[in-house]
What we know:
The protein is of the alpha+beta class. It has helices at 45-51, 64-69, 71-77, 169-184, 186-197, 202-219, 226-243, 249-260, 267-295, 299-322, and strands spanning 3-5, 23-30, 36-43, 84-86, 89-90, 92-100, 105-112, 118-121, 133-138, 142-150, 155-158. Strands 1, 2, 3, 6, 7, 9 and 10 form a seven-stranded mixed sheet that branches. A four-stranded antiparallel sheet has the order 5-4-8-11, with no helix packed on it. A hairpin with a 5-residue loop joins strand 2 and strand 3. Helix 4 runs parallel beside helix 9, helix 5 (186-197) runs antiparallel to helix 10 (299-322) and helix 6 (202-219) packs parallel to helix 8 (249-260). Mean pLDDT is 80; it is low at 1-18 and 138-145.
Amino acid sequence: xxxxxxxxxxxxxxxxxxxxxxxxxxxxxxTPEPGTxxxxxxxxxxxxxxxxxxxxxxxxxxxxxxxxxxxxxxSAGVWDDVPLGAGGQPCARERTTxxxxxxxxELVGHFRCGExxxxxxxxxxxxxxxxxxxxxxxxxxxxxxxxxxYGQLTALTVPRPPPPGAFSRARFENGLADGVGAVxxxxxxxxLLLVLGAAGSWRSALLGWxxxxxxxLGGAFLPTPEWVALAVLGAGAVALASRGTxxxxxxxxxxxxxxxxxxGGPVSYALGVGVGALAALVVAGPAAVAAGRxxxxxxxxxxxxxxxxxxxVCFAVGFRVAA
Length: 323
């Protein structure tokens, strides 16, 4: 639906979202409808409680029911105190939502704004303790575009979100890193050893390498549930380890599975994932082919190596599923 202009990427590897207690994160999003934008504010439940009486049932615990019951209080205590304007005129706030996440609260406001520079005054800083700050910026602008409000410096220029579909260099660079990581992943390397190294000839192995490259490019654009891609990688690794042989076309399937688990996002990001995975494959592929072909000369060593590689794949897959 939207192309998020995220001001801060909080890493979500295994443990989930981690929110600094004294930071309010703000992000703007574009929408397909001209003149509209969505703003996302994330903050801790304690910070929200300092701005609005959100504990509706008085039990000392914040729940989604509390947020729903106190929607008006949140509008008055938060949204009214972070007025957004364009070209000197206030933006019309159309609707808001509040959602309880793991460890933080996500507030979403939908605005209709006119032309001109977007400015926002974070008056909530005058209510929150002095150590609080607002972090505002743009993923599309990278680190350079990040801005901070704190103390008496509460007014900031908000980068106007680009139209949906606009190329994002930052998203592309993030995709590059994730694509390299998809191949550098220990389970992925084990899968490459099996798929590329277990081929019956050097020619077949190199063909599998080329098909794997095509697969990682295509998989980056496929919206695939992660568990499907992980299941393909795990089941394929065990099957190949038990057989000890493979076919070049399985390189295509392996390549698709490597990147499809994170594929289907914004075009800029997907392109970055594909290019990053392909670049990593250019480096790792020949090593996997050579290792597999050399190990096959020693049947005992090859059997141990392929089962070790399959175990690495299954361990990595299980770790991702558990996370």
